[in-house]
Amino acid sequence: PEIPFFVQVKGETTPSAAARLRALRGTPHVHVHEGVLDENAYYGVIAKSLVLLPYRPDDYGIKSSGVYVEAKFMGSPVIVPEGSWMADDVRALGNGLVFDAFNAESVAGCIRRAQREIVRLRAAARDAAIAFRAANGADRCVDATEALFADPVP
After folding, report:
1. Per-residue pLDDT at 1
2. Is 5 within 8 Å of 117 (Cβ atoms)?
3. What are the E-state strand segments in 2-152?
4. Backbone dihedral angles phi then psi of residue 146, each to the nearest 5 degrees
C-alpha cells in the first residue's frame, strides 16, 4: 500500500532546509503544510500517521520528544533514530522502527519496511498505547493524587 506523507515546514534551521521541504509540493502522496497546525489538525495528523522523527541522535540521547510521547499515547507507530532513548523504547515495545544511521538511505529503508509491515506496526503501537495510557494517563494521575490523601501523614 502507498503511504501518504504529511510534511510540516515549521522552524527549519536554515532557509535551504525549508526550501527543500517546500519543493516537495506537488509530489504524489505528499501534503506540505507550512506553519503551525491548530490543535485538532495536529492530533488528527498524528492519530492517522506513521510518525517519522528524523532527530539527530546526539540531541536525543536524553532529550525528550513531545511528538514521540503523543504518538505513543495515541497508538501511532513511529520511526526513530538509533542512539536515542526512543530507539530503546521502540525496541522494547515494538511500536515502530529504528533507523540505524542519520542519512537518507537509512530513513528511506525504514519507510519501505514500514510500508510492508504497517498492519503489524499499527497493532503493536495500539497495544503499547493501552499500557502507556494505563500507567501514565489522566486516570493514573487522579489515582496517584487520591492516594496521597488516603493515609494521613503522621
Report:
1. 59
2. no
3. 5-9, 30-34, 51-52, 78-81, 96-99
4. -60, -35
